[in-house]
Amino acid sequence: MLVEVIATSVEDARRAEQGGADRLELISGILEGGLTPSWGLIEAVVKAVSIPVYVMVRPHSQSFCYTADELRVMKEDVRVIRGLGAAGVVFGMLTPEKQLDRHGLELLLTEADGLAVTFHRAFDEAADQREAARILLQYPQVRTILTSGGKRTAIEGASCIAELVRMTAQTPLGILAGSGLSEANAPELIRQTGVKAVHFGTAAREDGQALRYVDAERVAAIKRACQLAEK
Q: Can you tell me the distance from the alpha carbon of 15 to that of 49, in angstroms, rounded to the nearest whole number?
């Protein structure tokens, strides 16, 4: 059972690792759903922890549709992130019609050589999550889909998550369930869906507050609960 925790600082990263997190999603702008962090922060976090660091590549929170200029900036960010030693990148893009933007995806993948790629929750705004998953299966570099099953929370989207887990079961593409998960409700989601990876944000933070530091004890409790659910 893989537990991924959002980090926004070096302190977050250290605490998440101390609590037993298996992987970090490094972002800025947590209240905006995650934006690209500074290159200085990426370098510092990669040096501070031994667990994999996946870095958000998202230039703004207006939408998941990007102009040609924005895609060029994102591609440059991927290049720099790769050079700073991160294990992976997290991005996603859609067309105005809510289809996967294959041109934008392919542009960034050309620069992501050697990095694991997570397609983030832009996936949940796609017109059809099942069709979107079938498209992503055509890109071996995309190793993970972060999803709430097309709903506001992963609990609400559990049936879709279960279907996506079945669709990808014999493939290199994994499903990472996220949004609204906590120590209390993640175990039931794991049992319902068979998902092997879960993603936590505010639930892993002091007092469950987005703008507080990650709480190592909360991370440890989440990890124990998820491991028990898998058995």
A: 10
How do the pLDDT tens digits run along the chain, 231 residues long? Answer: 999 999 999 999 999 999 999 999 999 999 999 999 999 999 999 999 999 999 999 999 999 999 999 999 999 999 999 999 999 999 999 999 999 999 999 999 999 999 999 999 999 999 999 999 999 999 999 999 999 999 999 999 999 999 999 999 999 999 999 999 999 999 999 999 999 999 999 999 999 999 999 999 999 999 999 999 976
With 0.90 as the threshold, say if the pTM is over it.
yes
- 2-29 in b/e form (b: 16+ CB < 10 A) is bbbbbbbbeebbbbbbebbbbbbbbbee
Cβ-proximal residues to 104 (8 Å cutoff; 6+ apart), any chain: 66, 71, 74, 93
122, 101 contact by CB (below 8 A): no
Q: What is the 3-state secondary structure (H, E, C) of 184-224?
A: CCHHHHHHHHCCCEEEECHHHEHHHCCCCCECHHHHHHHHH
**SS3 label, residue 85:** coil
Q: Are 156 and 149 in contact (CB under 8 A)?
A: yes
CATH, domain range 2-230: 3.20.20.380
* Domain assignments of the chain as residue spans, ordered by start: 2-230
